[in-house]
């Protein structure tokens, strides 16, 4: 089973990396890039041979405990195939 | 206008960061995470007051020239609102 995980900063959390990208874009002539926020994106392949529900639950835990920092980040999982 | 940009490694390009995440996940007891590939994800706000088509074209160029490395990465843009 394939899945994707998006990890994004919670609303209100400052994103200095995104701000830097936006400022640099202005400096090199991009005039319409008003705001940039950077997140992470993971493509995950799950071994779900015997128990797809357990694989889904494991990915939920993996996203919450490993891929994201729940203090400042949100995560969103999409399962791409059953 | 809001848009998102996904930047992912081209198929066939090794992803040592993703491999490290996968191996670490095994080491701490996640048994069903078979493969991880890491990409980048950007949320972009465009100033498109006068000319939405120009804003879209600028984001295309920004994704191609700034956010991604076209030698090893692909990018995908989604426009979220008109």
From TrEMBL, chains A, B:
Pathway annotation: Purine metabolism; IMP biosynthesis via de novo pathway; 5-amino-1-(5-phospho-D-ribosyl)imidazole from N(2)-formyl-N(1)-(5-phospho-D-ribosyl)glycinamide: step 1/2
The EC code for this enzyme is 6.3.5.3
Tree of life domain: Bacteria
GO molecular function annotation: phosphoribosylformylglycinamidine synthase activity
At the top of the EC hierarchy, this enzyme's class is: ligase
Checking SUPFAM superfamilies in the record gives:
PurS-like
- Please give the catalytic activity noted in the UniProt record: N(2)-formyl-N(1)-(5-phospho-beta-D-ribosyl)glycinamide + L-glutamine + ATP + H2O = 2-formamido-N(1)-(5-O-phospho-beta-D-ribosyl)acetamidine + L-glutamate + ADP + phosphate + H(+)
Localization, per the record, is: Cytoplasm
Instruction: Identify the main location.
Output: cytoplasm
Q: What InterPro entries does the record point to?
A: PurS, PurS-like_sf
UniProt keywords (A-Z) are: ATP-binding, Cytoplasm, Ligase, Nucleotide-binding, Purine biosynthesis
Which family is annotated? Belongs to the PurS family.
Q: Mind telling me which PANTHER family this protein's record contains? A: PHOSPHORIBOSYLFORMYLGLYCINAMIDINE SYNTHASE SUBUNIT PURS
Q: How does it assemble?
A: Part of the FGAM synthase complex composed of 1 PurL, 1 PurQ and 2 PurS subunits.
Write down the NCBIfam families for this protein, in alphabetical order: phosphoribosylformylglycinamidine synthase subunit PurS, PRK05974.1
**Function summary:** Part of the phosphoribosylformylglycinamidine synthase complex involved in the purines biosynthetic pathway. Catalyzes the ATP-dependent conversion of formylglycinamide ribonucleotide (FGAR) and glutamine to yield formylglycinamidine ribonucleotide (FGAM) and glutamate. The FGAM synthase complex is composed of three subunits. PurQ produces an ammonia molecule by converting glutamine to glutamate. PurL transfers the ammonia molecule to FGAR to form FGAM in an ATP-dependent manner.
According to UniProt, the name of this protein is Phosphoribosylformylglycinamidine synthase subunit PurS
- This chain's source organism reads Chloracidobacterium validum
Ranked from the top, the taxonomy reads: Bacteria, Pseudomonadati, Acidobacteriota, Terriglobia, Terriglobales
